[in-house]
Amino acid sequence: MEVAFRYAGRSGLRVERVGAHLGLATSERRTFVDGSVQRADVVAAALLLVARVAASRYDEPVSPSGPHDGSGTGSRTGSRTGSRTGARTDRDAHDDLADLVEHADPFLTTGDGLVRFESMSACGGVAARLDLLPDGLDVTPRAPGTTTVDLGPRVRELLAGVLPRDPLHLSASAAGLDERAFVGRVQERRLDLTARWLRSLAALPVLASDMRPRARLTARHARTFVRGLPAGSSDAGGSRSHDRGVFRPHHQHQPRPGREESSACDTTWLVPVRDSLRTLPGPAADALRLDGAWRLRVLEPLVRHATGLRVHEHEATGTTWWELELPFARLGVALSAHPGRAFADEALGAPHAVGDERAAALAGLLAYDLAETRWFDRVVPVARDLLTPDEPTADGPTADESTADESTADEPTRRAARTDEPTRRAARTDEPPADAAIAPDARLVR
User: Fold this and answer.
1) Tens digit of pLDDT for each residue in 146-189?
2) C-beta separation of 380 from 424 below 8 A
3) Handedness of CA 331, 154, 187, 70 (dihedral sign)
4) pTM for this predicted structure
5) What is the arrangement of strands in the sheet containing 319-326, beginning at the earlier edge strand?
6) For residue 284, how many other CB atoms are within 10 A of its CB?
7) Of 243, 221, 267, 299, whose CA–CA distance to 74 is shortest?
8) Which residues contact 356 (CB under 8 A, 6 or more apart)?
9) What does the DSSP 8-state code read for residue 149?
């Protein structure tokens, strides 16, 4: 399915003597956040990580020459990261994204005193979420909601620079950084998102709600563990790549039959020992199985800021959640059980009842906070009509078949969601509001 991301403003970062101001353009015509957040350096590094996951794939092995870029040769991203050793920096994280243009924009969710940014990889098997906590926020209360934010190459390059440990002025609105220069000129970016990706976004909260804590690492052990992870997946010939993951734009992906079976995947066995994780040579009682451990190297640029690392596991599927504890924030990364699997595959056939929170999550209306063990409102802002919470079984009609025509979607659910979000309804209307030149949005292109 083709989705158009439309923004009237421009995101940007301005560093002045009085401090730094990060202004993010949203696809909704209203202000979501306006205030200050503690630790500009931590927020910048965490947002880069969220952007990196959005612009990446983790479901195919890489060759020693670097990730495949669709042209038959290794990309310069692969050769660049392959030549590096030691701890990675925010600039390294930005360089990994330099060649990636097409990606789903991160989501911003406000409410309950928190500000959350989340993203999911193109393969649907890795997700990231940054939670900015109330004790580090000084913002004007706004109506809660979810929208997409423009976190393009220009603002990523600025975030990769050296920022102070001082508070950061953070705003998220249709105007972006400079409201004075806001003229409502729309920029549009289109890309293909698969129904499997969208279902994975909705399935992850259901999996998270059934996870249990497995380990809590101190800051020192967290740094040692993450930096000691394998650097990349093995190729078919068994050689090791030095890349820190597999990075490919959405539009370059060509699915191949049997990918999961043919993709090389190293298995790591971990057992919690006090405040650390010990690697075992094979399976053992109460050991945590981690396939594709190299995917966790995405945490490396941020681990230097961590005060701890918490690990949760979904025992039935092997899906895991790795949450860095940061100053005034949390950064969680979810991994599917295998690099060839998406979260939608893990949750396939999971039972749910009408009115249950899990049913609402599968409809794209809720997400789950593992640190606080509670559900929170998060309405998927793109193509949510393709989610079908009333599917009877996994053998019934697929989401693509049952939602090929928007008129067949669950109208009561859609009407209720529209009632809860009058601003979103106005932004999605074909005709712009009377008091606005345009109504930017992220919508499904028919």
Assistant:
1) 999 998 888 889 899 878 889 999 999 998 887 655 555 778 87
2) no
3) negative
4) 0.76
5) 145-148, 107-111, 114-120, 126-132, 329-335, 319-326, 308-314, 212-218
6) 11
7) 243
8) none
9) B
